[in-house]
Amino acid sequence: MGTGDGTYAYRLARSWPDILVIGLDSNAENLQEISHKASLKPSKGGLSNLILGQLSLEQSPGEVAGLADSISVILPWGSLLKAMALPEPELLHQLAQLGKPSSEIKIIFGYGLEADAAEIKALGLPDIDVNALRKAYCAAGFDVRVREIPVEEIREIPSKWAKKLAFSGKNRTFVEIKGCCR
Ligand SMILES: C[S@@+](CC[C@H](N)C(=O)[O-])C[C@H]1O[C@@H](n2cnc3c(N)ncnc32)[C@H](O)[C@@H]1O
What's the angle, vertex CA 7, arms to CA 65 and CA 50, rounded to 5? Predict the structure, then answer.
């Protein structure tokens, strides 16, 4: 969810040819380039195990209800970030409905008080607090561990947005929320 330009989903699908990867984003334009690449012949970068589609968290789970074994939200922004960071329990519930019962979930996000001051103000984002996030996710029905992650781990994420954040030189706190949907 929030797959952006689809690079992360594409690389995941290329690395795991036996797994079907579904990349969803509220903005279909973001997905056009990678969708085109994935539709080419395998010799030109085409992949038969990648599906990209337009779906917002707010409209989820829609037609993909209950399909996923594993759900990822990697470095969201905008309303998706807000839903993950506050968090917003009803929207987390909608996210979980994309998966099978007890599906795995992985969410990574981060922001910095100075670097992202405008976004923090606009979305009403709280200070990042690992314990408060764990409690809120558990109360929302998730069985998760939450840890702060170093920027070096963000650099390893195969997406342009991750590289942009990780190499910006700006101070940001990143967290990983990982576990399963109960
Ligand atoms: C920073 S971008 C890309 C993140 C991507 N995972 C990456 O690493 O390249 C965040 C994406 O979240 C999408 N997004 C924002 N709000 C959303 C929502 N409510 N539901 C689904 N996608 C959303 C945006 O359209 C955007 O493509």
Answer: 45
